[in-house]
Amino acid sequence: MAMTFSTKDLAAGGIFVAAGAYFALESLNYKLGTAFRMGPGYIPLLLGSALAVLGVAIAASGWQKPDGDELQPVPWRGLALVVLTIAFFGATVRGLGFVPVAFISAFATALASRLNSPLFAALLAVALTVLCTLVFKIGLGLGVPMFGPWLGQ
Fold first, then answer.
1. Distance (Å, rounded) from C-alpha 104 to C-alpha 128?
2. In the chain, where the domains are located
3. Spatial distance between the Cα atoms of 144 and 101, rounded to a whole number of angstroms
4. What's the whole-model pTM score?
5. Tens digits of residue pLDDT in 37-62
6. β-bridge mates for residue 38, sequence order
7. Residue 58 to residues 6, 15, 39, 143, Cα–Cα distance (Å)
8. At how many degrees (to 10) do helices 42-62 and 7-27 cross?
9. Which residues contact 86 (CB under 8 A, 6 or more apart)?
10. HEC sequence for 30-77
11. Which residue in 10, 78, 80, 130 has its CB near the most CB atoms, within 10 A?
């Protein structure tokens, strides 16, 4: 019996292993500390290692499946919206402020899927903006203004 594999699972697992290994190895440049007195490299090492192990598990599961994976067209709309949203967030968060940028980013990212309507994207953006404001601005005290100087604040 010939061994079959899923190219999608192998590729995804390989990407996870590469990213996890990179972050785990880079974390070794920082002080690790102990579980009770964690250094700046402790959590990146832990998460990078976990990501690499997850990647190995995903790649291993790909060896058991028949390769019925057909190449699907690249979802350019979704890819472009997500990448541009990340760049938009980084470029405008200090000028527009946290709340408008979080709303616009959540709205645009929700529209990356053709399954979401503009109404659903708006509702999701409102909910995520409220949640992110509570967690990051109020809970963690993020040092970014709620509404920035570009809006006259």
1. 11
2. 7-62, 76-151
3. 11
4. 0.61
5. 899 999 999 999 999 999 999 988 87
6. 33
7. 10, 10, 30, 38
8. 160
9. none
10. CCCECCCCECCCHHHHHHHHHHHHHHHHHHHHHCCCCCCCCCCCCCHH
11. 10
